[in-house]
Amino acid sequence: MVYKIGQKVKGTVTGIQPYGAFVSIDGDTQGLIHISELKHGYIKDISEVVSKGDEIDVMIMDIDEYSSKISLSLRSLQKAKYHPFSNRKNISRYGRKTGVGFQSIDKILPVWIDRALKEIEDKGK
Questions:
Q1: Fewer CB atoms near the end CB (10 Å): N or C, the chain?
Q2: Residue 68 main-chain phi, psi, to 5 deg
Q3: Which residues are paired to 70 by β-bridges?
Q4: Domain count, the chain
Q5: 66 lies in some domain
Q6: Can you give the residue range of the structural domain that contains 13?
Q7: Nearest of 75, 53, 50, 60 to residue 3 by alpha carbon
Q8: Residue 124 pLDDT grade (very low, low, confident, very high; cuts 50, 70, 90)
Q9: Is the entire prediction scored with pTM above 0.70?
Q10: The pLDDT of residue 88
Q11: What is the pLDDT of residues 36-65, one digit of tens each?
């Protein structure tokens, strides 16, 4: 079978190593799920997530044309608990705790405009 990057396939875990899990997609094709692609967050032990013989759905992340190695991901099919660029501690810098957001700009913008106009007038004198 011809596989494509981004394709969702079903496979069976055939082996576990400290760096990832090997998954048999069909009788002739095997891929590797790197430990970083097993789930969101830190993984101390791969056997916490998958075990040998488990049937799982995975996504094909990469196919090496020369060696025919297939990189798989279990994490890409899971929803993240939080946005990867947000701070999990929910710091008020993003307006979550304070609820301020962009509303404060409505209040301060007229003040900035008045200052800028005053500076322009002062320079013209």
A1: C
A2: 60, 25
A3: 31, 63
A4: 1
A5: yes
A6: 7-77
A7: 60
A8: confident
A9: no
A10: 55
A11: 998 888 888 898 889 999 999 999 999 988
